[in-house]
Specification:
By secondary structure, this protein is an alpha/beta fold. The chain has 14 helices and nine strands. The longest helix has 23 residues.
Length: 365
Amino acid sequence: MTNHKDITNRRIFSGIITCLALALAYVPIPGLSQKIIVVSGSELAEPLEELETKFEEKYPNINIELKFQGSQDMINNYIDKKNDFNPSLLIPANGELLDELNQRWQSQNNSKTFYEEPTAIAKTFLVGIAWPERGKILFRNGKFDWQKLETAMIAGNWQKIGGKQQWGSFDFVTTDPTRSNSGQITMNLWALSKGNNNLNTPAIKSLFSTVKRGVYLPPRSTDILLQEFISRGPNDADVATVYESIALYRWQQSGASKNKPYQVYYLNPTVETLATAAIVRRDVNEATANAAGKFIDFLIQPEQQKVFVQYGFRPTHGNIDLVSVANSPWNQGIPGAQVNPQISTLAAPQPSVLGEIKRLWQRVQ
């Protein structure tokens, strides 16, 4: 027969095992914790920094380290080994850039690029923004117009296109197409507006030359561009192309800085970009890959998708009403912002097109 002392000892031992199990589940144990280096486009900086904290509260054994680069820079730096760290997870602004990375990797290596199929975590559009007085002169019918924008750039100053003399030079801003996805999409949509898919025509080369001469030191990323646009204000930055997400998120900041916040203009057609996450294989072991997979799964859950909405992104998972989300920018009366804009969307440019856009931008004077 089992005596009372044996039963007591077994209960104590069982309690110790339970406590150890809980400790393993919730307390980081040296040697068992995982570090994930996540490289993302700068447009995702604020939501990912917020979600990083929430994720590490849920998974204390997994440490997220965030890095931010222009989306094209991200691909180039990874392929050319220019980083001083080993990325685990890449999240460029556009999933097609991961296709480019995959093609370039496969041409150089006899191994798979990613652990699994990339996953879209948030989406947005490319939009135009302009300071109210300037927008009313340039886009008199309230609609963004590539031809009017090109005419203004060729004219060079506001007085020649019906603006006030004191407004001075006309200043359009976009990101560097050799380094940033939004700059690439801008030039692709602008070229398509001329009704020709061929980038190697005199008209398209002239367009690229006009824009390159008119955009002084284009920023390397979209969020940097928008922050500069707001700080420079009218007379130094008049019109820009940015993602809808950061245009909505930083709208109040533009009002606080310049009294009259900018107006949002939807491009028609535009390109819907899908911020897409991929776990890379180079120098990433399976344990780290599994931890990175947990982070991706976390990002696409409804509560995290609502956080992306608060920062102006549209969800990729779950049937989420943009207006009903707490602190949604679609509740703030932002001029021009629409929940369901009546526009058509095009597929993001293929890697071959992106490559030609970069080459053309580098060649023109």
